[in-house]
User: What shape does this take?
Amino acid sequence: MVVEQLVGAFVNILTDPLNLLVFVVGLTLGLFSGAIPGMNGTMTVVLMIPITYSMDPVTGIMMLSVIYAAAVYAGSISAIMFKVPGAPEAIMTTLDGYPMNQQGKLRQAISTAVFSSAVGGIIGTIILILFSPVLADFAIQLSDPEFFAVILLGLALISTVGSGNVLKATMTLSIGLFLGVIGFDPLQSIPRFTFDINFLQSGVSLIPVILGLFAVAEVLKQVLTGGEMIGEAESEDSGESSMFPPVEYLKRFPKILGVNSVLGTLIGILPGAGATTGALFGYTFGQRLVPENIRKQFGTGIPEGIAAPESANNAAASGAFVPLLTLGIPGSATTAVILAAFILHGIRPGPELITTQGTLVYTIFAALLMANVGMLLSNQAFVAVFTKIRHLPRAILFLLIIAFSFIGAYATRNIMVDLWLMLLFGLVGYLFDRYNYSIAPLIIGLVLGPLAEPSLRRGVLKAGGDFGVFLQRPISAVLIVAAVLVFFVPLIQDLGLIGKVVDIGAESDVEVEK
Amino acid sequence: MSESTESQATGESSPGEPDIDPEEELGPDEVPSNWLDATISAVVLFGAIGLLFHTTTIEAITLGDSADPGPAFWPRLVLGAIIATALGNLVLVLRRLKNEEGRLLPNKEIVVSGFERRFRDLSANEWQFYLVIGLVIVYLLVLDPIGYLIATPPFLFAFGWILDYRKPGKLGGTSALVSTVIFVGFRLYMNIPLPYGTGPFRAFHLFVESLF
Assistant: This one.
């Protein structure tokens, strides 16, 4: 039954010229919107909704789904090439992708990203096809305590990201969490840390922060050091991409691809989590799946550091369709917009959708599978465009990065303050990099903090003020215990006695100074 | 590291302190990184303490016997974590300083000499670094009053020029092209309202918009 309907959906897309054209347009738009800073999948889906009015609902919603899937991958291209995450989903890919590029391994980095994205997206979609009703039942049982426990687990994984200097990593994580509380509080809408300044009431936007910490900080660093963004081994690397990573790479991360694809899908079904959260979990969880010698190389430019977030974020993008299609609850910002498209076309998602709108649902499934294959096939041509930009003179390249970073920071909220914020975080990012403060935890805190607080407070509120509720519910209790273990066990393993902390801290800083 | 006669003129140590040549002690950061690291932690620590006090001004709405921990609860948890970790890092750095440098506070002359030298002997790259930051600040200051299309091409041109790209024709063309492409793409196709400036600048932007 499932196979028949799926085959029918493939035939519907491939044999109908209009559907095929719309699919290709959606894929292209998704790839470009993900790769260009300032644009993202959500924005493009919003812009395309009016165009879908004139289309059949199946065709229109298929196009929006394809844009979403493609944009999640494409953010990694500019992240790897220019250290500019094209979309928030690509933040973690920057950490290893850009260093690999600088080592002259651009081709390997891009092919690892696209392959991992495709695997994650395909596995996520297969899970979506086979287990949507089961996952929806599971998701509906999760309440605030479980949701908070999941986020806490994500925060606890920081001990892995910051290995070598956990104290500094926890400090930057906490700073990220604090940035997330600026503005109106999520339950009572009371302004916090706004100091009667209007623009602070809407909080600190993620996009200017990540563009500042990554793109502006990197440009400043390269200006100061007289460096280049292109690796020295570039002459050996044509810069062209291929569908598959080198065979020796594939042997290194099958476990990461498998586990993170499932993990990403599960993160995706959590309402509000989305692909960015999937990438954060994927990167930190990926470090737990590899031997210690590899784990310590995360952040220095290794393929595992690309495969982990890329497989998880694309799987999460597929997972976000589970609550959307089966419960009518969006799993991410983009699926919230797609939900609006459903409603505008007179379709209300819910448990009956698969039965009443089988053609639509299976066309979305087929389109998501095809989009992931399409990314693999079109990647080489698409990356070639960006490769040409890369070989521009250094000053022109930096000029382009700055111009697009500025428009990217401004485009989200259309306020000048975001540009100042980007400059400020550019300087902060530069200083953090110079004095061995890891940037990734700050981003993790800023993304997960606004998700953690409301679920914590709602959980306590519903339990009548009893904080014990988090340990009384089995799933949240297990997750919280796991979070505690995940945070403290590596600390104990890595640091041992407290006195050793001093030595390790000193060693890590000496390495940085070198 | 260059030898200096200046340190000999100014660098007499206080009684009880090791005899240190300020210029000799300076690393690539001009001021030793341990102290700058400690400064970052101290700034974060005191900032977090100040913000923690500020949470007493956050007033919660109390509805009946609501069990909501309140809007100040989470920020206090977070600020507590910042204070604990910043303090921890500060202690570690100070212990390291005591072990490596033999004292907790830097020699005043080292700091003064370091900063003097930083601004006296700027390399070409350092000049570019500070000029780029200054240029961005100027751009942000004028962007809103004069608008995107008037501020951006000169900004991009100056940016490239500072980075030693000395082909005025190409640089000017690229700056104008990039600005126009962004304007057309983002303003006209994506309907993102870019800064248009005020008065005649706004009129100019509206005129350009009408051309498309």
Observations:
- DSSP finds 25 helices and two strands in chain A.
